[in-house]
Design the sequence.
């Protein structure tokens, strides 16, 4: 089994004030996944980010921050707006995948998961196992869920990866982002950014600067922290550039692709 995360920045213009999907990238990625599945049979779970669809309303309504009881009516509306926005994105993604002949089925986190202080603490994955056994590709995405401490919160696609991997024990975990992997700073704005081909401890994070785009789910540092937890359990992950043609196909086929491996230290 492979868990493939496709970042919201690949599928949408994440910094856009309006919700915009990148149809060209979406079609290419769908085609690469289909080509890989045609070549060799494999079980696949797809996780995608919320991008320019989910982040603006989540930020506007400060979903996941403590609030007073009289603020609950507005918070509920913010929760619903965020859930509806990411659901729209998921529908567009699933439509494109189905058009390519991929048997995807959406399983929204908000329909079955709950959290405690922004961490997933409950979510039965039996439906994932059943869909996989019958040849479907479950698709889940960054979403809003009920929270036992904060009432409501945002759950990132990266945290979903960790929860799925811990409970389903995949053979591989792959993250498709808009850069070649992990750098010491944003490589799009710094020519002197240093590339890391491997990460194995939290100490390595001290060398990283924060990400620059508007992201309420933790950016690159947040991704690495989730993956380092998996590494301690012996589950290796790789961060690659999903904007490069054929990278998704190659990494699904376990061919050589530039990227950062997150694994347990020696």
Sequence:
């Amino acid at each position: 089994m492979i868990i493939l995360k496709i970042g919201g920045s690949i599928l949408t213009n994440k910094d856009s004030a309006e919700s915009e999907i990148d149809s060209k990238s979406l079609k290419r990625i769908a085609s690469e996944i289909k080509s890989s599945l045609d070549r060799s049979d494999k079980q696949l779970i797809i996780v995608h980010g919320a991008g320019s669809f989910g982040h603006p309303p989540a930020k506007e309504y400060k979903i996941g921050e403590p609030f007073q009881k009289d603020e609950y009516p507005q918070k509920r509306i913010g929760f619903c707006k965020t859930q509806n926005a990411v659901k729209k994105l998921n529908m567009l993604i699933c439509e494109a995948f189905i058009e390519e002949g991929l048997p995807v089925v959406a399983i929204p986190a908000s329909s079955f998961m709950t959290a405690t202080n922004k961490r997933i603490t409950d979510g039965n994955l039996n439906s994932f196992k059943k869909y996989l056994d019958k040849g479907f590709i479950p698709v889940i995405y960054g979403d809003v869920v009920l929270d036992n401490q904060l009432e409501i919160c945002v759950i990132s696609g990266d945290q979903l990866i960790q929860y799925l991997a811990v409970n389903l024990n995949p053979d591989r975990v792959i993250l498709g982002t808009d850069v070649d992997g992990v750098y010491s700073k944003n490589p799009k704005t710094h020519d002197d950014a240093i590339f890391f081909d491997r990460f194995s401890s939290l100490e390595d994070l001290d060398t990283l600067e924060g990400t620059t785009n508007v992201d309420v789910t933790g950016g690159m540092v947040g991704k690495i922290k989730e993956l380092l937890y998996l590494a301690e359990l012996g589950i290796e992950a790789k961060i690659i550039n999903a904007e490069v043609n054929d990278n998704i196909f190659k990494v699904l086929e376990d061919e050589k692709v530039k990227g950062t491996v997150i694994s347990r230290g020696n």
